[in-house]
Amino acid sequence: MILLQLFLSFLKIGAFTFGGGYAMLPLIQAEVEARGWMGREELVNFVAVSESTPGPFAVNIATYVGAETGSLAGAACATLGVVLPSFVIIFIVAGCYDKFKSSRLVSGCMTGLRPAVVALIGAAVISVGKTVFLPYSGAGPLLGGAMIFLISLLLAFKKLHPIWVILISAALGLALGYVGIY
């Protein structure tokens, strides 16, 4: 039963989310928490791990949730569920796109979807940000986390490769932990 639940949950997430893995995060969070598969903090921890591992973000999270909930078979079901809608949609769109790409209807639809995707990503950022920053008690950890966030943001805007941003952030976290801030 859990395998079917994982497949259907991630099929729904994959089918109704536009904009990639980060746009899926609010749906994944709601589904995972509602079903009691894992807590918000555990999910946020994996978001950090998923960001620093190879592969698509949403696939990594689906695979992880599936593995934690239903072992190897669960990982396969969740992963298949999250990628199947995209595969089917892209297969259909690829066959029809040349015919409809100049359509005002298609253009209008895309114009409406882009801001919605940004809003979903923003909601995910706020949700994850609350989980990352609010548990800290004391100014040191909060300021340390804010400092790492701002440095990482600056490096990302300066177009530093994401691997370097992750490595520098990890080094800063280690340094702050070494001096006793964390």
Taking the alpha carbons of the first and last residues, their distance comes to 41 Å
Helical run tally: 7
Shape: globular
Number of domains: 2
Main β-sheet description: none
Strand content: under 5%
Question: What would the average pLDDT be, to the nearest integer?
Answer: 85
Low-pLDDT residue intervals, each spanning 5 or more residues: none
Question: Would you count the extended β strands for me?
Answer: 0
Helix content: over 70%
User: Which structural class should the secondary elements be placed in?
Assistant: mainly alpha
Radius of gyration: 19 Å
H/E element order:
HHHHHHH
Summarize the structure.
The chain folds into two domains: 2-135, no CATH class; 137-182.
Q: Which helices and strands, and how do they pair?
A:
Elements (H helix, E strand, L loop, with lengths): L1 H14 L5 H14 L5 H12 L5 H44 L3 H30 L5 H19 L4 H17 L4
Describe it:
The chain is an all-alpha fold. It has two domains: 2-135, no CATH class; 137-182. It has seven helices and no strands. The chain has helices at residues 2-15, 21-34, 40-51, 57-100, 104-133, 139-157, 162-178. Helix 2 crosses helix 4 (57-100), helix 2 crosses helix 5 and helix 3 (40-51) packs across helix 4 (57-100). The longest helix is centred in the middle third of the chain and has 44 residues, at 57-100. The chain is globular and about 60 Å long. It starts with a helix and ends with a helix. The mean pLDDT is 85.
